[in-house]
């Protein structure tokens, strides 16, 4: 939740998003908060955007709201596919449904997430915050054939953006281990520790994806991790569930947060800016607004052990559950 740099040298703006006509994008959790603005701004620039959300009524209401907000002359191309981050099968099926409908995927923004919820297992036996990582793994890996095909097309600019958090540093209070489902679930850890772990997996997944693309000779797909900043969204639903008595404190804290419009800038930059390629920001971690940030040594994962273990575990879970 930390990291808005008021003294940031440059301020990247939505007006810098290039024309996206002909490109196709997916944004998970696009019905509210940062995802909503991301969907809206990609559509404003001409991309066909798929909102992958768990609740159809919320998604369709959000799409209708975006249509109203955007100039009707733009005729925004907005679609919805059901996607539940908690279910590896749902994520895989969402990818399959998308690939039935589309012949390209230029931008994938893995944005959906929950924060600081009480310990609970999802339908696959995975702790629900850990699903911030595993659900997006299942979606992204299922979409890889189409992402690679798109990257082979002329003038393609394929981006995979994983929305993490500066809160990934909470995982450093313990020793992360991804060799088993039990060690991923970390029942004994604090609620914030588990959130941090899930956000660390978002970064490790970015690193590992980029490494695997490089190993298979693919150099024009850019994978990035983004911390949006401390933003006033519905993400506080989790902490309010864990500690309802702290509600007045959260209301106070909101006074020091960014708007969703400001918060979405860094992921929009990662998803669209030509600078990503010009500066060759492969597997970079970005902080607000549109700034590179060095990763902690755990997140750098120099020997690739954590990222490799996370990948292997997710693959095994998908084989069992999806
Ligand atoms: N806000 C911040 O200060 C902040 C800081 C650092 C990182 N982030 C990250 O930014 C991302 C977006 O968060 P936000 O602040 O925009 O929060 P938000 O307003 O609560 O939006 C979260 C989105 O994720 C969706 N989602 C949650 N669980 C899901 C599930 N099981 N399946 C599918 N979709 C699900 C929500 O859908 P429903 O509306 O149906 O619940 C909603 O669309 C998250 O990954 C978060 O960790 C946010």
TrEMBL record:
Any matching Pfam family: adh_short
This one is known as: NAD(P)-binding protein
Kindly list the organism's lineage.
Eukaryota, Fungi, Dikarya, Basidiomycota, Agaricomycotina
Family annotation (InterPro entries): NAD(P)-bd_dom_sf, SDR_fam
What keywords would UniProt list here?
NADP, Oxidoreductase
Superkingdom of this entry's organism? Eukaryota
Q: Does the keyword Iron apply?
A: no
Family recorded in the similarity comment: Belongs to the short-chain dehydrogenases/reductases (SDR) family.
The organism is Lentinula lateritia
